[in-house]
Each structure stands twice: as structure tokens, then as C-alpha cells.
Amino acid sequence: MARIWKAIRPLAGNVQPNKPEAKPKKEAKRAKPVKKAKAAKKAVPAKKAARKPKSDRSNKKAEVIAMMQRAKGATLDEIMKATDWQRHTVRGFVSILGSKGGHKIESSKNAAGERTYKITK
Predict the structure, then answer these.
(1) Please, what is the average pLDDT of the chain?
(2) Which residues contact 98 (CB under 8 A, 6 or more apart)?
(3) What are the CA-CA distances from residue 33 to residues 24, 30, 36, 38 (Å)?
(4) 63 or 26, higher pLDDT
(5) Residue 25: how many other CB atoms lie within 10 Å
(6) Which H/E stretch holds residue 118?
(7) In terms of CB atoms within 10 Å, which of 15, 44, 79, 116 comes out highest?
(8) What is d(CA 16, CA 10) in angstroms, rounded to the nearest whole number?
(9) What is the distance of C-alpha 58 from the center of its chain?
(10) pLDDT above 70 for 60
């Protein structure tokens, strides 16, 4: 619309095209006072008594595989106690062991409802 008006105005006679009005300047804002940063809290280390020393730690993956290669296999609860893993972690590990690890895994439930995992050849 502005382009059309600008083209028509000079045709109306010796009239100068209107210059766009300058926008009013905004008032300068006051600078906000800078607040001091709060001191960061120090991280609290985990209890050392709950952790096993590095020399006592074993390869959990190898331990779980050895348990699952037994004749009767290993129950979900046995693996949880041996590794200090949660239920979903054990199930995820077993799933990855079967898909990416190349092991053939049998999963079954006994009459009591306990899940047992066994590596077959």
C-alpha cells in the first residue's frame, strides 16, 4: 500500500511525497543493580561405608553370566542380590545380553512365580 501511495502522490501535482514519521525514541531504562552471586553448595560425598573397595569389586557382567550358565540358571532375585542392581536393570542387562551379546537365553517362571534366566548353548 505504501508503494502505491508513494507512486500516486507525485502525479497529483507538485506535492512532495510524505516522509515516514520518525518513531519516538524510547526512554532509557534504568540499570538494575547487580546482585551478588550466591555461594555454590559443596557436593556431599556418598557414604563410603556403603561402597565396596575397588579391590573387592568384581566384573558384574562376568559374575551374572557365570550365574546364568549354571545348570539351574539364576533367579532374578539372586542376580539382584549379587550385583546390587534393581529389578529393571537386571531385566535390561539380560535383554541386551541376548540381543547384542550373542547368548541364547531361556527365561521361565516357576510355580512360586520367580523368574529364572539360563544361558543355553
Answers:
(1) 81
(2) 104, 105
(3) 27, 9, 10, 15
(4) 63
(5) 6
(6) strand 115-120
(7) 79
(8) 7
(9) 27
(10) yes
Q: Among residues 120, 4, 34, which one has the least CA distance to residue 73?
A: 120
pLDDT at 15: 54
| Residue spans of alpha helices (H) in 1-121 | 2-8, 60-68, 76-83, 87-99
Burial class of residue 71, CB neighbours in 10 A (0-12, 13-18, 19+): exposed
Angle ∠(49,51,53) on CA atoms, nearest 5: 100
Expressed in angstroms, the distance from the first to the final Cα of the chain is: 81
Contact 67, 81 (CB under 8 A): no
CB atoms within 10 A of CB 101: 15
Nearest to 98 by CA among 81, 72, 118: 118
Question: For residue 47, which amino acid is it?
Answer: K
